């Protein structure tokens, strides 16, 4: 049986070093590794950030590009249970406010399934999560580079990553048309672009 209780380096202190801009004064973010019991809440969080009307409260919505689901409990469970991956859970005052996937792929780490509650987007929470993910990949796995794939039509999101040190490679991968586990495309030209950042 796969061990799903791997300790995240932050689990011991259970709080982020910096203040959360969205929280009342003195409230901190807590980072930990996801466990089985988190799967329903994480699935709901990812869906709320990318699909449907609820996602339009934030700026990361893909609702104009894709309908249907963004993920499902099986997809989240695969990450939680994979010994080469971890799902980073971000909590504030006991509630889950963000998450991301990290996958160990040798010299580099893959970053995905990044979600911030729509009503909390735009004020620095996402940046704090990304920085923690980079620190975790570097310190826990010795990764020297972070990689991710972003839908190339998401120019606003790509620009956000570029401002945080990620470089566009121009390397494209096809969108999995016909596989509704990844959503129902609303246009015929979707593709993923690879973004990379050295982790020094």
Please give a structural write-up.
With 200 residues, the protein is α+β, with helices and mostly antiparallel strands. Helix content is 26%, strand content 30%. The chain has helices at residues 39-50, 52-55, 73-81, 125-141, 155-163; strands at residues 30-33, 66-67, 85-92, 95-105, 108-116, 145-151, 167-174, 184-185, 191-198. The strands form two sheets. The protein has a seven-stranded mixed beta sheet, with helices on both faces. A two-stranded antiparallel ribbon has the order 2-8. Helix 1 (39-50) crosses helix 3 (73-81). The longest helix has 17 residues, at 125-141. The radius of gyration is 16 Å and the shape is globular. Residues 1-7 and 9-26 have low confidence and may be disordered.
Instruction: Describe the sheet with the most strands.
Output: 7 strands, mixed
Helix-strand makeup class: alpha+beta
Q: Radius of gyration over alpha carbons?
A: 16 Å
| Separation, N- and C-terminal Cα atoms | 35 Å
Question: How many helices?
Answer: 5
Shape, principal axes of CA atoms: globular
| Strand neighbour order, sheet with most strands | 1-3-4-5-6-9-7
Kindly report the average pLDDT value: 82
Please provide the ordered H/E string of secondary-structure elements. Answer: EHHEHEEEHEHEEE
- How many extended strands? 9
Low-confidence stretches: 1-7, 9-26
């Amino acid at each position: 049986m796969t061990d799903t209780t791997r300790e995240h380096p932050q689990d011991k202190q259970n709080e982020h070093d910096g203040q959360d801009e969205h929280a009342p004064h003195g409230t901190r973010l807590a980072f930990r590794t996801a466990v089985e019991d988190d799967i329903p809440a994480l699935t709901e969080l990812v869906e709320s950030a990318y699909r449907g009307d609820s996602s339009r409260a934030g700026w990361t919505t893909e609702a104009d590009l894709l309908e249907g689901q963004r993920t499902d409990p099986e997809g989240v469970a695969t990450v939680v249970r994979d010994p080469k991956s971890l799902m980073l859970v971000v909590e504030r005052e006991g509630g889950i406010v963000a998450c991301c996937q990290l996958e160990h792929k040798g010299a580099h780490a893959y970053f995905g399934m990044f979600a911030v509650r729509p009503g909390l987007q735009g004020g620095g929470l996402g940046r704090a999560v990304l920085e923690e993910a980079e620190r975790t990949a570097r310190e826990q796995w010795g990764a020297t580079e972070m990689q991710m794939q972003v839908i190339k039509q998401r120019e606003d999101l790509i620009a956000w990553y570029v401002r945080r040190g990620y470089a566009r490679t121009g390397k494209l991968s096809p969108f999995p048309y016909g596989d509704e586990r990844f959503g129902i495309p609303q246009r015929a030209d979707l593709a993923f672009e690879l973004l990379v950042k050295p982790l020094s």
